[in-house]
Each structure stands twice: as structure tokens, then as C-alpha cells.
Amino acid sequence: MMSINRDPCIQAESPFQKEIFVLQNLLRNQTFSAFESIEESGRSVKVYIFRRLFHSILVLVGISMVVFIILHLTGDPAALMMPMDATPEQVAQFRKEMGFTDPLPVQYWRFFKGTLRGDFGNSFRHSQPALSLVLERMPATIQLTFAALIIALMIAIPAGIVSAIRRNSILDHIGMTGALLGQSMPVFWLGIMLILIFSVTLRWFPSSGRGGIQHLILPAIALGMFSMARTARVMRSSMLEVLGQEYMTTAKAKGLAPPVVILKHALKNAAIPVVTVVGMELGTLLGGAVITETIFAWPGVGRLAIQAIYNRDYPVVQAAVFILASIFVLINLMVDLIYTYLDPRVRLG
Amino acid sequence: MKKGFLMLVILALVLFSFGPAFTATDKDTVVIVQGVDPTTMDPHNHMETPAWNLHIQLFDTLLRRDSNIKLDKLIAESYRIVNDKTWEFKIRKGVKFHNGEDCTAANFKFSLERMADPKNKLRQTAFQGVIENVEVLDDYTFRIHTKKPYPVMDAILAIYGQPLPLKYFQEKGPEHFASNPIGTGPYKFVRWVKDDYILLEANENYFRGAPKIKKVMFRPIPEATTRVAALQTQEADIVTNIPPHLAQMMDSKGRSFVSKAPSVRVIFMAFDTTKPGPQADKRVRQAIAMGVNMETNIKKILDGNGIRLGSPLTEKHFGYDPSVKPYDYNPEKAKQLLAEAGYPNGFDFVINSPTGRYLNDKEMAEAVAGDLGKIGIRATVKTFEWGHYMNTMMYGHNASPAYILGWGNTSFDADFTINPLMRTGLLLSNVSFPKLDALIDEGISTMDPKKRLKIYSDAAKVIKDEVPWAWAYQQMDIYGVSERLNWKARTDELMVVFDMSFKK
To answer: Which DSSP symbol is given to B71?
Structure first.
């Protein structure tokens, strides 16, 4: 049986006795051994961060290589850049000037060196550096992604909690059926339906473009729906697991009010898997923004990337994928670090 | 946790209130929606219709096409052919750039020579290898000296060769100009928020008079359904490239109407006659031309949005001969021709096609394959993504035995279709007919328009006999137009706002 004055996330049966000890000492901050443990803990966190950073860099190099190879396998942009009636000499000259006649490893090395300096080269179609094209569209994508995430969380978390507390009730069934539907609807279909219902028929929101709040609502809902559904399901199952724990019974037995039991004692522990899912969802949302931005004519990076892919505008595709991937990797890193705060067992794992 | 939720709500409010205010359509602004944003504001450095549509508002050319595609003068006051290699232009006095610079012969010399020099790496190559130099006779008269006789100079100058403001361009450089353009056109550049909108305002001092519509907004919306929605919600006044199935939605509420025009774009199925195979035999090509029921296919696959052609040219093109008609659908005669050619039991055949490039291109290829099956040819369709199709199949000459392609000849001269597509050895040509080559060469080196008409009429007859293309049709361009606007779709895909007005 667990003592009630312990933090519920540290369980007596836990195999991570060392970490529990470190944490206990950290919390009490009383003895010399605790200071030793702080140092040890700090070092282990540093090692952990360093290791994760190293992995992240490896992932980014891998991504750059994959994007580069896949793009170049599909042919160069000469056909799309030159007028259709260009002479063979003009096309050959263009290829030579752009460096497409060099061997692939040479081209990759050139790209890699540039990337280290933050130089992805000039866009073939826009007379502008690729990186600046991506960066000037980044605020729009970040705005949409976070708006989608916020809408998703604002609905998913309460829905997940209510479903868990009122398990098998009508509310639970409605919530989980909604979640199932949300996960099943393709973004492009949902987006078009939202436009037809809320723009064309009801005239509540503009159909496309970026502007004030009214422009953001429909694309954010379309983009956030999948994440909303998944997060609600994770929240529900995680909450159910926590609600079944003995310390919850104890908390209730102490006579605490139900909202206090749920929001103060249960939610903190139930939130741990949700944090991981939310971190992953941000990646999904950044990726999903490609389709949402195209449907709603949202001037973001995803739409730029799609156009660039069609046009074989390598520098832009590479810059867009690299920046989005970097953000994704960074978010994952942050999630891992937050996770270590929420659940210290992860650190040395 | 309550605090966390509160933070979430505050963050939501901040995010949702971020961004410029909603720019709704107003009574002075015409909103034009195209599929994509232009890639540049430099009128010499693109080959895209969306960019042309923007530049035609900002810049003028020496000549122009009116709404019936007839050649007319714009900045040019008069012009004449001095000799086989010299064209002389006199330009209007008092034409000014938006920054107040005068537009003189020097601006044309600079702009045309800029386009002719390959070192400038511009995407428009029309004048490269053509213009020798431009000679300024006085402030308002200049001569274009060409390296060879160039009878199509006037047709080309109706779309290419916009004059640039010399001082401004030299001071600021091409990169600055590419996002801060200054021309002589009826509208002045105001703002460009990339992939979101471009705003122009009327040039009240325009030499042809102040435009009736005071502001123009271009918006890119890639998804066709969303474009149509923007029209229905009155966020747009003109939307381009409407698929036929969505065009039916347009008229329903009386807020908008459909405007169609036969496109300058010709879609065709060509043969590679330079490679061995049944298609190298003229009789087989003729049999295929007779064995495909294009009238029905256009009706069924394109909802009737196509005009069948008997030659590679449309009726708006110089050199079009209306007496040359397409082959009649005649499967019996087709089978007979196949037997004569030694294929009484047919043969295996491949039709290469891009997918998603032209209206229902893949479906059309499949319908054609189905027709060929009825005359014993076992045809299969291979489809490709556009970039790959052009790179590997077209430029690599790997599309044998047959392929579907589209061609938009906005110069409206026969040479710009049959020369690149049918002259032996050229980049997009996969045929070789010496008789046709001779006519093509004669056509582009003859300055007399009457003689040229005869040459292209003869060429059309050779083409009908040799069948380099099994079939061709002119696609219809479908636009959605707001009820408040006076405008009619043009064949050259251009939307000239100067010619538009709002209904009272």
C-alpha cells in the first residue's frame, strides 16, 4: 500500500529506486547526499539532452539526404522552367548553369555545405532565396498550426475527461463517436464541407485566405479535427487508468470534492501521455497544414512546398522540408524534456 | 490546471486576433482569383498565364490583341516593315511610367535588348537569336534589326517586350524590380502579400484615360471548389479554371454566371513516327484518326467543353485554313486501312498521357484507347506526373508510339505551333516530313502575309495527309463571373481589367 503523503507518480513497486531516491532528496533538499544527487541528476539531464540533440542532428542529416535523393530522382526542373519550345542547346545550357549535370554526390555536398550556412540557394522560379520564401510564410503556418492545436485541446481535454468520468453514459458515447468520426474524416473532405456549410450556405465565415479571426476558424477546425479526436481518446483512456488507481480512492475517502480529485489529483498524472501525444500532434498538424493550406488558400509554408514540388523547385522544397522537420525535431526534444519533468523516471531510461 | 486552461484561452484569443483585417470586396475593387500566385513582377522573366494576367494591368506593350484577338496598336502609333530584317516603330508621345519617367524609344531599346541577351537568363527567350539590335532614330522612333527575316515580329510584340523604366530599373536593380514593379499600364502596383493577395490601384494619368474600376485585387486559390465558393460568397468577381461539373453550380443562385471561351490551348494526340512500329506507317495513323470518335468523347468526357480541330491551329490563328476538316469517324474504313497496312488482327499500342495537367486528360486517353479497341488495336494508357512527363518523355523523345500533349500558342501565328512541334529534329518534334519542313522554313522566312497564308494552307493539307496527330481539340476555358461585373471571357486567357466595368 502506498503512503498518502507521497507523490503519486512515484510508486513503491517502481523498479526505478535510484531515481525515486534522487527525487526524494531533491524535494526535501536536506542532506549532503541530496546535493550529490542534484549534481548527479544535473549531469544525467545534460547527458540526456546532449544525446537527444545528437540524435536530432542525425535525424536532420538523414532527412536532408532523403529529400535530396527523392527530389533528384524525379528529374530536374529544366522542362518546367524553360519555354516549351526552347532549343535543345538552351535546355542543355540551362542544365549546365544550374549545376544539374554534376554527379549527384557533388550536388548533395554543395547543398549540404550551403545548409550549414543557412543558404538553401535561390528559388528557380521566384527570384529570391529559398529560405526567405519559407521564412516569410512561416508565421502563417505557425498561426494556423497553433490555432488548430488550441481548438483541438480546448475540446479534446474536457471531452476526454467527461467521457472518462461518465464512462458508458450517453455523453461518453457521443464524445467517442465524435472522436471516431473526427479521426476518420479526411482533411480535404472536411475542409470542403466546412466551406460549403459555413461559408457558402450560412455565410458565417469567409471561404479562404488569411485575415482576421474569421479567416482562421474554419481552417483551424479542419486541421485540428484529427488531433482533437486522437487527443480526446488518449485523454479518456489515460484518465480511466488513473481513476482506477488506489490513491484516487484514498483522495475521495479523504472527503475531497470531486472537482478537486479530478482536476488536482487525477489530471496531472493522466496528462503525461497526453503531453507526448500533443507533441506528436504538432508534427501531424505541421504536415497536415499542407493540405489545409491548399484547400483554404492559406498563405503558408505547406502551400509553398506543394507548388515547389510541382515545379521541381528543389531549393524551396529542401528549405521547406528542412525547416518543418527541424521544428518537428525541436518539438519532440522539448516534449521529451517536459516529460522528464513530469515523469523523472524517463531521464536515465 | 485551471491556470493552464486559462493560459490556453488567452493564447487562443491572442492567436485568433492576430493578422491583418479582413479585406472584403468593396464597390471599387474587382477581385480576380487564379489558381496560383505569379512568381515574379518582372514582365520579362516568366512564362505563366497567371503572371501575364497581372502584368497586362501594370505594363503595356507596343501592340495588343483586342477582345476578338485582332492585332491593334497600344504604345505604338504606327509601324512598318522597312526591309526583310528591319521593323520600324513610331510610339505615342506623352506615355509615362507610374513614377513619372517618360516612355521613349530608349526604354524599348533597353527592354528589347535585355530580352535578346541570353546572359540575362530570362525565362522569355522569344527574342534570343532573333534581335540583332535596336536602333533609336529619335525619342519616339526606333528600328528593330533582326538576324533573319522575322515575319511574326508584330504578333510577338503584342505579348512580349514591355518597356521598363530605365532610371528606376538601373538604380534599383532587377531583384528589387521583381517585387516592386513600375510600368506604363492602367494600374499601379500597391502591395504584394505572397500567396495571399496582390493589390493594384488605378493609374489616373493613363494615356488611354483613367480606368473605370479603381482597384484590382488578385488572389490565388489553388483548389477549384474553394474558388467557386469564393465566387458564391461574393468574395471574388472572376474565378478562373472552373471544372465543368462545378460550372453547373454557378448559375444556381443568380449571384454569378459562367463565361466560356474556346481556349488558345490545343490538346492533341501525337505520334512518334521516327521510331519503328505500326505508327510509322501513314495508313495506320490515318486508321487511328478515323477510328476514334472524338465528337462523342468531347461530349462525354469534357461535357461538350471542347471544339474539334482539323489542323493544329484554331480559327483565331494566322494561317488557319477552314477548308481542312478533321477525319470523319469511320471504324470500317479504319479496319480496312489497318488490313492494308498488314495489321488485319490489330496490334498492341500504348498511349502516354499526363494526368491532371489538362481537363480530364487521363479519362480522354482511356476513352481513346476504348475506341481503338473497337478497330482491333489493343491500346493501353500510361499516365505520368507532369514534370516527369516533360523531362523524361517529351524532352527525352521517349513517348513513342503516341502521346497526349497541349499547346497554347498565344502569338496566334501558325509558325509557333507547327514549327516547334512538327519540324524535323526539334525538341518537341517526333515526326519527320521533308515536304512539311520545307513549308515551315518558307513560312518563317517570308515577309508577305498573303504568301504566308498560302504556305500554311498547303502545310495544313500535308498535315492532314501525313497525320502527325490523330486528333486535336480546343479546350474551353470556363470562368465564373460575379453578376455585378461587365466582362466576357477571351480566347487568349487574359483578363484585361481596363476593359471591365461594374454594372450600375
So the answer is: E
* Chain B residues with CB-CB distance to A93 below 8 A: 118
Cα distances from A84 to residues B114, B123, B124, B426, B472, in angstroms, run: 21, 11, 11, 11, 18
CB-nearest to B12 from A154, A299, A307 is: A154
Interval B370-406: pLDDT, tens? 999 999 999 999 998 777 787 778 878 889 999 999 9
Non-local (6+) Cβ contacts of B137 within 8 A are B88, B105, B143
Query: What does chain A come to in residues?
Result: 349
Query: What is the nearest CA distance from A249 to chain B, expressed in angstroms?
Result: 21
Helix (H, G, I), strand (E, B) or coil at B227: helix
The residue of chain A nearest to residue B175, with distances taken between CA atoms, is A127
| Cβ-Cβ contacts under 8 Å for B165 (sequence gap 6 or more) | B97, B99, B101, B103, B107, B182, B183
Amino acid, single-letter form, for residue B187:
Y
pLDDT value at position A29? 41
* Structure letter (DSSP) for residue B100: S
Does the distance separating the beta carbons of A199 and B233 come in below 8 Å?
yes
Q: What is the pLDDT of residues B43-66, one digit of tens each?
A: 998 888 889 999 999 999 999 999
Across the interface, which of B12, B118, B388 has its CB nearest the CB of A150? B12
State the count of interchain CB pairs (< 8 A) between A and B: 172
DSSP A73-129: HT--THHHHS-TT--HHHHHHHHHHHTTTS-HHHHHHHHHHHHHTT---B-SSSSSB
First-last CA distance in chain A: 26
Residue keyed to cell 525538341:
B427
Q: How confident is the model at residue A3, as a pLDDT? A: 35
Q: What is the pLDDT of residue B452?
A: 96
Of the candidates A127, A210, A267, the beta carbon closest to that of B42 is on A127
The mean pLDDT value of chain A amounts to: 78
* Residue A179 in this model has a pLDDT that exceeds 90: no
pTM value is 0.82
Tally: H helices and E strands in chain B: 16, 19
Residue-wise over A237-255: b if at least 16 C-beta within 10 A, else e?
ebbbebbebebbebbeeee
Closest CA to B22 of A209, A85, A50, A317: A209
For B413-422, what is each residue's pLDDT tens digit? Answer: 999 999 989 9
Test A214 with B39 for CB contact under 8 angstroms.
no
**Which residues on A lie below 8 Å from B156 (Cβ)?**
none
Q: Using a CB-CB distance cutoff of 8 angstroms, which residues of chain A are in contact with residue B407?
A: 84
- pLDDT, tens digit, 9 for 90 and up, residues B440-456: 999 999 999 999 999 99
Provide the ipTM. 0.78
Answer whether A297 sits within 8 Å of B426, measured CB to CB: no
Find the farthest-apart pair of alpha carbons in chain A and give their distance in angstroms, rounded: 86
Q: Verify whether the Cβ–Cβ distance B233 to A297 is below 8 Å.
A: no
